[in-house]
Write a structure and sequence with these properties.
By secondary structure, this protein is α/β, with parallel strands linked by helices. It is flat.
Length: 339
């Protein structure tokens, strides 16, 4: 008789019924967890998408694998074959590892304004501060130590990890996840020069974040000076990103860690920006642009494609010689033109 899976076990056929794909091998193979090729053990499901790991695939102890049609002949393991193994693996991992459900209600250690509105099925953790006229929608989960400013709106199903700050008037769209320590709506860097001193310009705008976004740990998004800073739906931001005031980030754009974006820059839809990139202010980045990690963007990019501005790494003395030659290129070109 075929074994019946418990609540934490899934047959390959169960998974394919949910997410599609084709099964090659035993459809009754049961898996209990996802894992990497190298660390997998019996009962684990892995994905394969990097041909450099063919040796590891042959030696893995996993029970089953997700891979593409082109790679399906590389292993005799039971397999789910699909056009995008990594995305399929992500769906399965989310299914097997759903987020913990927090108990509904407001902690007795939270500080909540009498004028705040909180949906009855939301969860408010200890030491949370919810200010005047803030609105927390249904199924929101606000963990310990978060601060929600006056007239801020937290959408349905939002998940806020500990010590997140949402400043006055900011709006967080439905099902957005904000990781620990993020600051949404801090003052932008708005200063006017007066002689040898500076005059601070009040930052009167908000931050508006769309639905289904993710904001990484310790990422900061400044409020607008006059107009709003806008993060559109589906945007994914990694940890420790700085987005200046009055920026606009288009739908489904993904930005890796430690990127700095100066104020009033507009970034289009479906862009990908690598870690450590720097983008000057008041620029326009078109839709469907990829910026390599570490690249410095100092002018607008209006044509889709990939842009890279990273000087190659060399031993230091060789790097100095190469840099000296680069500095001399303009003079050399001038001499060649004269000749």
């Amino acid at each position: 008789m075929e074994e019946v899976p418990d609540s934490k076990s899934f047959r390959l056929r169960d998974i394919v019924e949910l997410f599609g794909g084709d099964i090659i091998g035993d459809a009754g193979t049961m898996v209990t967890q996802v894992a990497s090729i190298k660390s997998a053990k019996s009962g684990n499901l892995i994905f394969f998408g990097d041909k450099r790991l063919r040796k590891e695939l042959l030696n893995t102890k996993a029970s089953a694998v997700i891979l593409s049609h082109d790679d399906s002949s590389l292993t005799n393991l039971p397999k789910i074959v699909t056009t995008n193994p990594y995305a399929y693996f992500a769906q399965v991992s989310r299914f097997i590892n759903p987020p913990d459900k927090m108990p509904c209600g407001v902690s007795k250690y939270a500080v909540v304004s009498e004028t705040a509105k909180i949906a009855h099925n939301s969860s408010i953790g200890p030491n949370v501060v919810i200010s005047d006229h803030a609105h927390i929608h249904s199924n929101a989960n606000v963990e310990a130590g978060c601060y929600i400013g006056k007239k801020a709106t937290i959408g349905e199903g939002v998940k806020m990890y500990p010590n997140v700050t949402i400043a006055d008037g900011c709006i967080i769209g439905a099902n957005t996840v904000i990781q620990a320590g993020a600051v949404i709506g801090g003052d932008g860097f708005g200063l006017a020069r007066s002689g040898k001193s500076w005059i601070k310009i009040p930052q009167l705008g908000r931050v508006i974040i769309g639905d289904n976004c993710e904001i990484g740990a310790n990422t900061t998004i400044d409020r607008g000076a006059l107009d709003d800073t806008i993060i559109k739906s589906g945007v994914k931001l990694d940890n420790q990103i700085q987005i200046g005031h009055n920026c606009y980030v288009g739908e489904n754009t993904a930005i890796a860690a430690c990127v700095g974006i100066a104020g009033s820059t507009v970034i289009g839809d479906n862009c990908r920006i690598g870690g450590g990139a720097r983008i000057s202010g008041h620029l326009e980045i078109a839709n469907d642009i990829i910026i390599s990690g570490g690249t410095f963007i100092y002018k607008s990019l209006k044509k889709p494609g990939r842009y890279t501005g990273v000087y190659p790494t060399n031993p230091h003395e060789e790097w100095k010689r190469n840099a000296s030659l680069v500095r001399s290129l303009r003079k050399l070109v001038g001499k060649l033109k004269k000749n």
